[in-house]
Design a protein that fits this description.
The chain has 489 residues and is of the alpha/beta class. The protein is 30% helix and 27% strand. It is globular, with a radius of gyration of 23 Å.
């Protein structure tokens, strides 16, 4: 098997589909007998994941590792920025919180060498174990004002000696200008490193873009390796919450309506992907309080800023609607930050989230929460209520919640969550709805006497990775990509 260079998926902008294509390539390389691994030096996301050793990385790299058939590690995403305010992010380095930084301070050139060394060391460790490494850039590779402090795009490609493939989103328009500009604004050295272009998110008849493809190759001097159509039939877990608002607000008379409240600082919304795929569920994200009126089940999701989002619930009228729903016999569930909000009080004596020292919760769970600077990150195996089945999930939270009526007990005897009754409970465990036992319990009060066919969510995800790989093989010249990666020096 020939040695391949590392490959970087760089973008003409944010949300062009770099993560999705990187995920597909990880699965393709695995299918073809390689031992690939993903890498993103610096990620900014609220959707994170706990590694097997209890550390934290961006969710996209965890998904890519899953597609590559390997366990995720912090070497795949050594630097993670988790926005906690308008201009502030928590900085997570090698899986552990390093502190909060404002955007101006973080993105200055000063002090970036230390972060660059951390990223390089992680990449070197990864490269010693896996082949090839599939790198992902961040945002646009042509942010000239940030170039000197870059640690994730072309500077990382130079260090890794990676083949760079530029990904462009044709659906947003201006694809010729974005591709040409992204290439021509590079330094001569970096321009030579870009070996191909993938046009993503195409709609319509591909034959209509044949002349455009040839024009791009002519003016840029770089081959267009593929034009990839939109693939709404393929479901890969997303990292960005931008698309959540568009996920249907219409209730269904035939299905159980589940409303997830779209908090300003929502995190780990992938907790609800399994519910979204369930044949008996109509799941949507509520942006106004009126939208939860007809919901059978209301879920308060995780949050990167519990106190600010608790204020949001009251300001926007959600808190009153949730209490009304509870009184009417609807089910109310809190996950992580949402669990904290459903309690009696949330205190922040150390100022972990800002200047708000204490707020009353919604009072539906008899628990109190104290936020702490120490973060809990771990994967967990647990028993749900009295079930003998071993379930799986993970925890990522800052704070301790006192509860005398636990929802789960893990295999080490640690208790979690609070159970009031079948219509009201909360937990710190992310991914809890990936377990059939939990979903059956959640839906039982609203079900008829028929039992739904259970969905194996793990098998479903594996099938989606294979479908994505097939899709890319169909529309991207994978053989030419292999040739470029084999000949590149």
């Amino acid at each position: 098997m020939k040695r391949l260079s590392p490959i970087m998926l760089a973008g003409t902008g944010s949300d062009v589909g770099k993560s999705l294509i990187a995920t597909g390539l990880c699965r393709i390389f695995l299918q073809d007998g390689y031992n690939p691994a993903p890498f993103k030096a610096q990620n900014m996301a609220l959707n994170s994941y706990a590694t097997p050793d209890g550390l934290e990385i961006g969710r996209a790299q965890a998904v890519q590792a899953e597609a590559a058939g390997i366990a995720c590690s912090t070497d795949m995403n050594p630097i993670l920025l988790k926005p906690s305010g308008e201009h502030t992010s928590q900085v997570v380095i090698n899986g552990k919180p390093y502190g909060n930084r404002d955007a101006y301070t973080y993105f200055r050139k000063d002090g970036k060498e230390e972060l660059r060394e951390i990223a390089h060391a992680a990449f070197d460790r990864l490269r010693s174990c896996y082949h090839p490494i599939v790198l992902e850039g961040a945002g646009s590779i042509t942010e000239l004002n940030l170039r000197d402090g870059d640690i994730v795009n072309m500077s990382m490609a130079r260090y890794a000696n990676a083949t760079v493939i530029l990904v462009a989103d044709i659906d947003r328009g201006g694809v010729f200008a974005s591709v040409y500009g992204s290439i021509m604004l590079q330094s001569p050295e970096d321009r030579q490193r870009i070996k191909g272009v993938i046009i993503n998110k195409f709609r319509g008849d591909l034959r209509l873009f044949e002349s455009g493809r040839m024009l791009l190759e002519e003016i840029c001097g770089v081959p267009v390796l593929g034009v990839v159509p939109m693939a709404p039939h393929i479901a890969i877990e997303e990292e960005d919450s931008v698309a959540l608002e568009s996920k249907g607000k219409v209730t269904s008379a035939e299905k159980i309506n589940v409303a997830v409240i779209l908090l300003p600082h929502i995190s780990n919304f992938t907790d609800f992907n399994a519910l979204e795929r369930h044949q008996d569920i109509n799941l949507f994200y509520a942006t106004t309080s009126d939208e939860i009126d007809e919901a059978d089940i209301i879920i308060l999701p995780g949050s990167k800023n519990t106190l600010a989002d608790l204020q949001f619930l009251r300001k926007k009228g959600f808190s009153g609607k949730i209490l009304e729903a509870r009184a009417k016999g609807k089910t109310i569930v809190g996950i992580c930050g949402g669990y904290q909000m459903l309690g009696l009080t949330v205190t922040d004596p150390q100022g972990v989230e800002g200047d708000i020292g204490i707020l009353p919760g919604l009072g539906l769970l008899p628990v109190t929460t104290c936020l702490t600077a120490e973060k809990v990150t771990r994967q967990t195996q647990f028993h749900f209520l009295n079930s003998d089945e071993v379930c799986e999930g993970y925890e990522i939270h800052m704070g301790h919640t006192d509860s005398k009526a636990p929802l789960t007990v893990d295999t080490y005897g640690r208790q979690d969550g609070c159970f009031v009754d079948t219509h009201c409970f909360g937990t710190y465990i992310h991914g809890i709805f990936d377990n059939v036992t939990v979903v059956d319990f959640l839906l039982a009060p609203f079900k008829s006497d028929k039992r739904a066919v259970n969905c194996d969510y793990k098998a479903y995800k594996e099938a989606q990775y294979d479908a994505l790989a097939d899709w890319l093989r169909r529309y991207v010249d994978i053989e030419k990509l292999y040739s470029i990666m084999q000949s590149y020096d």
